[in-house]
Input
Amino acid sequence: MTEAQASAGRRDGAGTGRSAPGTPCWVSLMAHGLAATQEFYGALFGWEFRPGPEQLGPYVRALLDGREVAGIGQLPPGRHLPIAWTPYLATDDADATAETVRHCGGTIGVGPITAGRAGRMAIASDPTGAVFGLWQAARHLGSAVVGEPGAPAWNELVTRETASVVPFYRAVFGYTEEAVVSADFDYLTLQVDGRPVAAMHGVGDALPRDRGPHWMTYFEVADVEEAVERVAELGGQVVKPPRDGSHGRVATVADPEGAVFTVVRSHARA
Output
């Protein structure tokens, strides 16, 4: 994941400052309790917050050492949607990409809408139901830092089998793939211009029945065991305890409202 961390934050070479299409450029969470959620992540990652666009309701941007890394919004009262971190994949034309999503069997749940002067966005799901965002950057280019403690480090689609969904993402975003050659490990790295930017992991019957296919966001931490203890102290839950994985030392946790994410100390920081 070291190369991916470095590449995930690269902008294009055309002078626009935008991430190359298909690159995860932002992560966002919609929660019921905005203030309590800010307290949790502020204590866990050292984030501070400032207001962001409110087209979908109250919304703040999380800052790490003054640099924007993620967004947190508040769900409208009475809306009982799954609480989950959502990666936003860069596009140069949110409307055209949304139409391609529909044409390829996906669904557009929100938008495309304009988020003030920040950019244009949509919320989509692939044919298996995994939710992701589209982001056409204007003034807001996305996460200003990746791969440092407290910042996003990686995004991975957890699905039943990669073969059933990779044609969708290839058609929508133009990804090329690199497979891990293994008889019992269904894993693909998604590449943009030859650089790994995200991955797909087919887990078969191990897919959580209460979640279905979903995108998983990894956040870098300095110490996984310490982060897991902190999550528990702050009212969160440990979903999978610390373990050694292909990306480094990892643990899967959930915040007090149930949003699941992975903390990682990547090999590059070991």
In short: The radius of gyration is 17 Å. The first helix runs from residue 2 to 8. The chain is about 15% helix and 40% strand.
